[in-house]
Amino acid sequence: MFGDLLKRLTAPAPEAFPEPDARLALAALLVRIARSDGDYAEAEKARIDKIIAKRHGLSPFEATKMRGDAEALEAQAPDTVRFTRAIKDGVPYEDRTAVIEALWGVVLADGVRDPEEDSLLRLTANLLGVNDRDSALARQRVEAGA
């Protein structure tokens, strides 16, 4: 089902992703961060659905379906380092900084800033080429409800 996208994710020199693949890869990254603490909570799933719907102009049903596809892709995707590097090479910087904000939204969705999620988010931001300052500003915007 995700053969072409998985090939692009594991290619030595990833190319820019077509829009549908970029959307799915970024949604899978949201799922990966939510699953990182071993507790994939309903609040996190709901936040992912909300982010996907808002970001892509989807209905709640379409967003839930995309999350389901993203969950399947995340389970098959390579390790986080290769996965995020491929996204970095295939997705424009503006979209990557927006994704860090979305990732903070997922991390904070259940009301707990879990050390495992926090650590993975910091690694992910670095691998996506987003500096600590921009990541901290993204977290502050999420905490402020912006």
UniProtKB/TrEMBL annotation:
Classification via InterPro entries: DjlA_N, TerB-like
Superkingdom: Bacteria
Protein name: Co-chaperone DjlA N-terminal domain-containing protein
Residues covered by the Co-chaperone DjlA N-terminal domain: 23-140
A matching Pfam family: TerB
